[in-house]
Write a structure and sequence with these properties.
The protein has 491 residues and is of the alpha/beta class. 36% of the residues lie in helices and 21% in strands. Strand 4, helix 5 and strand 5 form a beta-alpha-beta unit.
Length: 491
């Protein structure tokens, strides 16, 4: 089975921060992969924009090195590389002044008939100034979009202010707030599993599901993000956006169609139905952690405070939360979320734990009947496993065995799993906002997260230490085990 690639309309992608880390690691490789897949139409251009004093050839040299480092050797096809590099242009632009903007305007005039996307791969403090100058130099037409990366604020007030700033320049339908987790193949397969199969949706409720677990574990530490991370912490960095978006896709009602607004309307309802967590229940519903010195696959690693160089930091590198959704479908079903750095392994997965059978007809000698699980793996090996009970083959009586029906997407379909940015970058060009966050979604997520942050501050809830290379603090284990459940560990 092969996948079908549909070319998109010709476009100009202007990447502010074009020589930055995100462009190097993700954006340029993603656009190159769309090139070799045959998705880029002529005369598509990719325009880097930053303060660096480069010309077109300098930017192309930068891009060639980025591709050498971040794509596989067998994907480095010289004719394709040459064609891709010819699409690249560069303009030295200062976001805080008018320097270089006339040059950008002149370059874009030759593409007035194309889709025009501005990717703001810069800090949020520059979103407003760049947006104002885009408008001031009359670079917006009816096929213009703007892409903004997280963080969208650090609380509700700053998120609203940032949305106001961007919204004064661009219409809401032109704004694409990107969350790369939503571009993962498995996340979209969650939609297909739920809404394209009669098997799951009738069981997708509190009558049949015992609880849900969402885990996003990272094995790495700060990786050069110390300045940002220590001001954010795991709750702002991961829960407010990535994990709540995954929770919404698991818990939302069936939309009337797959149209962007229909899907986003249902996600918003989930966010608004989350039971509040505040100073009255935060100590029971949340756990904060911070990694200490330990070991990873690469050997001994420093603790967070040593890595940061600040012995007084109380920033959490791990969060576990017991969330509850107050509606008919999910009443009484807890959603356990956990995320952390320097964990035992890099793994992101959603585990749907079904209720046990009400009565076993089998004798004790047959073995214990284990409740069914649906494990949706986002990384590193994308796929779905449905754990079921079967008879162990062979003579000798009834022996029950818990086994997975395994679907690895790469193996099943014989194609490479595209990086999430590949899909999302093309969805911007197609003007498909299904996998992007609407303003009211972002603000509803902050409305739930803000009281947790406030509760931690008011109650001085401490960060529990955990050894690097483990599964987090013991309090996180207690959070779920006092409900008679246990965290799922990968098998």
């Amino acid at each position: 089975m092969s996948s079908q690639t549909i070319p998109v309309d010709p476009f100009d992608y202007v990447v502010f921060g074009g020589t930055g880390d995100l462009a190097e690691r993700k954006l340029l490789p993603a656009l190159y992969h769309r090139q070799i897949a045959g998705q880029l139409s002529e005369p598509t251009r990719i325009i880097g924009a930053s303060r660096s004093e480069l010309d077109d050839e300098g930017f192309r040299s930068f891009a060639r090195e980025a591709l050498k480092q971040h794509i596989k050797d067998d994907e480095f096809d010289e004719p394709q590389i040459s064609q891709f590099l010819q699409r690249l242009h560069y303009v030295s632009v200062d976001a805080t002044s008018d320097r270089g903007w006339d040059n950008l305007s002149t370059l874009l005039k030759s593409g007035e008939d194309r889709v025009r996307a501005f990717y703001l791969a810069v800090g949020p403090s520059l979103f407003g100034e760049i947006s104002e100058r885009i408008r001031g130099h009359k670079l917006i037409h009816d096929r213009t979009r703007v892409v903004v990366e997280k963080p969208i604020g650090r609380d509700l007030a700053t998120a609203q202010a940032l949305n106001d700033t961007i919204g004064q320049v661009f219409a809401e339908e032109q704004i694409f707030r990107i969350d790369h987790y939503l571009g993962k193949e498995t996340v979209q397969n969650l939609m297909a599993l739920r809404f394209a199969n009669a098997l799951y949706e009738p069981l997708w409720n509190s009558a049949h599901i015992d609880h849900v677990q969402i885990t996003v574990a990272e094995s790495v530490g700060l990786e050069g993000r110390a300045g940002y991370y220590d001001k954010a912490g795991a709750l702002r960095d991961m829960v407010q956006n990535h994990m709540l978006q995954l929770l919404c896709l698991v818990a939302m009602e069936a939309p009337p169609s797959a149209a962007a607004e229909a899907v986003r309307d249902e996600k918003l309802k989930v966010l608004r139905a989350l039971r509040p967590i505040d100073a009255g229940n935060a100590s029971k519903m949340t756990v904060r952690g911070q990694y200490r010195a330990g070991a990873s696959a690469g050997g001994a690693v420093k603790g967070y405070l040593d890595e940061l160089g600040d012995a007084d930091s109380n920033t959490e590198t791990f969060v576990a939360i017991k969330a509850e959704i107050e509606n008919w479908r999910w009443a009484g079903v807890p959603f356990y979320m956990r995320t952390g750095k320097r964990m035992a392994e890099r793994a992101s997965e959603i585990v749907i734990n079904f209720k046990p059978i009400p009565h076993s007809i089998f004798s004790a000698s047959a073995g214990h009947v284990i409740a069914n699980q649906l494990v949706i793996r986002l990384q590193p090996d994308e796929g779905v496993k449905q754990w079921i009970m079967i008879k162990d083959p062979g003579p000798g009586g009834m022996r029950l065995k818990h086994v997975p029906l395994d679907m690895s997407f790469a193996q099943s379909f014989g194609v490479r799993n595209p990086d999430a940015y590949e899909r999302l970058l093309m969805d911007v060009i197609r003007c498909n906002q299904t996998l992007f966050m609407r303003r009211d979604e972002v603000e509803a997520a902050w409305q739930w997260v803000d009281p947790i942050l406030k509760a931690w501050e008011e109650t001085a809830q401490p960060c529990q230490g955990y050894t690097a290379g483990t599964s987090g603090p013991t309090n996180a284990i207690a959070l779920i085990e006092r409900d008679g459940r246990t965290w799922h560990e990968s098998r």
